[in-house]
């Protein structure tokens, strides 16, 4: 789902939710690898980016930094989960916040090259904070269910 906003080239999507949850469940290396595969698919022409877009122009455009940030954020969130940050709701939420900060660092920095340093936070950060806080809450709440699915899948492999 992509919700374009008329005042910014950055749409509202569920991507950050998926990135954070993927990192926490798959771990640092596999989480980052899965996000790198996602970006590679989009670069190869599969319409996987927000709004069904694809190709190198997306990565080189105003939102490309967010895509690179997805890879690093999945690694960071996964690393934190591997070190026990996924065991309690508060530390899980903090891991998700830190992953989101990584996405913003890459995304807003890249966006600044297109809209200027002063406007980048106003166009690529501020409008998304309320929604991203909700996505962080949902990812934090979804993680125990994701772990239950992983345990169930692992248990069925043992049979």
Automatic annotation (TrEMBL):
The chain crosses the membrane at residues 12-28, 35-52, 64-81, 93-113, 133-150. GO terms for cellular component: plasma membrane. One of its GO terms (molecular function) is biotin transmembrane transporter activity. The keyword Transmembrane helix applies. Pfam families: BioY (PF02632). Keywords: Membrane, Transmembrane, Transmembrane helix. PANTHER family: BIOTIN TRANSPORTER BIOY (PTHR34295:SF1). Belongs to the BioY family. This is Biotin transporter BioY. It comes from Thermorudis peleae.
């Amino acid at each position: 789902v992509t919700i374009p906003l008329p005042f910014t080239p950055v749409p509202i999507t569920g991507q950050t939710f998926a990135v954070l949850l993927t990192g926490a469940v798959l771990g640092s290396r596999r989480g980052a690898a899965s996000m790198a595969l996602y970006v590679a698919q989009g670069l190869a022409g599969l319409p996987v980016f927000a709004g069904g877009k694809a190709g190198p122009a997306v990565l080189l455009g105003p939102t490309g930094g967010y895509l690179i940030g997805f890879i690093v954020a999945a690694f960071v969130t996964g690393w934190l989960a591997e070190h026990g940050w996924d065991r309690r709701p508060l530390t899980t939420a903090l891991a998700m916040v830190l992953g989101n900060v990584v996405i913003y660092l890459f995304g807003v920095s890249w966006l600044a090259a297109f809209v200027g340093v002063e406007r980048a936070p106003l166009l690529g950060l501020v409008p998304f904070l309320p929604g991203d806080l909700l996505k962080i809450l949902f990812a934090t709440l979804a993680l125990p269910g994701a772990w239950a699915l992983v345990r169930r899948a692992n248990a069925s492999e043992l049979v």
